[in-house]
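Lay summary. Proteins are chains of building blocks that fold into shapes, and those shapes determine what they do. In this project we predict the shape from the chain. Here is one chain we studied, written as its sequence of building blocks.
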Amino acid sequence: MDTHTLLILISVGILAGILSGFVGVGGGVIIVPALMYAIGMSQMEAQGTSLFVLLLPVGILAVNNYYRAGNINWKFGLIIAGTFVIGGYIGSKLALRISPSIVRIIFGLLMAYVSIRMIASGINTFNHES
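And here is the predicted shape, written in a compact code that computers can read:
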């Protein structure tokens, strides 16, 4: 691994960590596109690497901060975490069986949809605050 690649990976990790702690995103939204476009990984390799990153350290220090501030619903989180394991297994099986191009299109459409909804909601909330 050359220095340039190492610096990109460090930057991706820091940015994903900051965004994860700040707004709860990082894995798919930051890491996958960064690995694909900055490093040249395939969609599947980027997704697998992103899942590896999130496997154990999934925001442990950020979770601690939110916990100390009283901002974690443990019951909801445990239910989502338990079912996330099942969903992750099913999703990975599906992704590996269909065309990587289709996976990329679905991923992009999902990000676009969520982005548009969040921007519209933010604008609406901002207008009501003023």
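What the prediction tells us: The mean pLDDT is 83.
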